[in-house]
Amino acid sequence: MTRRIVVVGSINMDLVTQAPRFPQPGETLLGDGFVTVPGGKGANQAVAAARLGAEVALVGALGRDAFGDQLQAGLLGEGVDLQHVQRLDDQASGTASITVAAGENQIVVVPAANAGVTPAHVEAAHAALARADAVLVQMEIPLEAIEATLRLGQRLGVPVILNPAPARPLPTDWLTLARYLTPNQHELAVLLGADPAEDFRALMRRAPTPVVLTRGSEGAWYREHGEPAHQPSFAVEVVDSTGAGDTFNAALAVFLHEGLATAVRKACAAAALSVTRLGAQQGMPRARELDAFLAR
Q1: In 3D, which of 89, 214, 238, 197 has the Cα closest to residue 163?
Q2: Domain of residue 222, residue span
Q3: Would you say the C-alpha torsion 274, 275, 277, 280 has a positive or negative sign?
Q4: Domains in the chain: how many in total?
Q5: Is the dihedral of CA 261, 266, 267, 273 positive or negative?
């Protein structure tokens, strides 16, 4: 059965520079290449879920500019339903300036039209959320829209996965509305107002809702009840880690009906595949690729 996923989040054009290393403050480096590629955590997760075989609707906003036209065309080409993506006349489309060096990245995001996503936009997508198997929301859109998504999901009885990136403190009652939190260790500490150096398993136990914690090359840890369990990562050659977390979240949502342990394993595998290619969306695997990778 095709899974139905709704993603509420950002849509950006990524301006990606490849460099031999990250520059120091005030330093100018000669880069190795430059490309513009579709991005934004919301759009990334929507594309990843669609490639994994889900029926996906995206709630977000674009400017009426050239980047907006390109981003819209790309999402439609991936089969994402854009009925609830607004085109704003008074805003540019969001951008992310990304420097990639030695498989790592540094990112500066300018939200632009993404800052125009409102609770009214979320409520307008009521019917789409009502028929969804899972909802994904991140934190590159206004807090009011995030709260509206969490509260609407609870009213409808639809599981909402909150990917708290970039991390900001949130009220505890908001966190309890999410079915799962999917932070890394730093993000979880920010959410809980804790020391990032505290043991991550202790942080997971303190969270007011179940946590799936990503740990980079170590894989992921997850906890619903009792002690956190570990899912190791899959060994691959890293080309570009941009979009790995978004791929992880999308796969988690798509396979959640198979049980949390299976969903986390498939999410780790999908994320591993995604880092073997340059670009956030370009590297995201299709269902047949994931199946073949897991079979090996």
Answers
A1: 214
A2: 4-11+40-87+114-295
A3: positive
A4: 1
A5: positive
Encoded tokens for 122? 């979320």
Rounded Cα gap, residues 289 and 268, in angstroms: 14
pLDDT in tens, the chain (296 residues): 899 999 999 999 989 899 999 999 999 999 999 989 899 999 999 999 999 999 999 999 999 999 999 999 999 999 999 999 999 999 999 998 989 898 788 888 899 999 999 999 999 999 999 999 999 999 999 999 999 999 999 999 999 999 999 899 999 999 999 999 999 999 999 999 999 889 999 999 999 999 999 998 899 999 998 899 999 999 999 888 878 999 999 999 999 999 999 999 999 999 999 999 877 788 899 999 999 999 98
Both tokens of residue 34? 């430059």
Q: What is the pTM of this model?
A: 0.92
Nearest to 251 by CA among 53, 76, 117, 102: 53
CATH number reported for the structural domain that contains residue 62 in this entry: 3.40.1190.20
Angle between helices 41-51 and 244-255 (to 10 degrees): 50
Confirm whether 70 is domain-assigned: yes
Q: Is residue 33 part of a domain?
A: no
- Residue 72: CB atoms within 10 A of its CB come to 18
Task: Give Cα separations from 210 to 38, 155, 181, 223, 257 (angstroms).
Answer: 31, 19, 6, 6, 16
Q: Is residue 34 part of a domain?
A: no
Peptide bond into 111 cis (omega under 30): no
Catalytic residue among 133, 240, 246, 291: 246
Q: Are 3 and 133 in contact (CB under 8 A)?
A: yes
246 is an active site residue: yes
Judge whether 32 lies within some domain: no
User: Measuring CA to CA, how many Å separate 269 from each of 175, 204, 229?
Assistant: 27, 22, 17
Residue whose tokens read 């303190």: 206
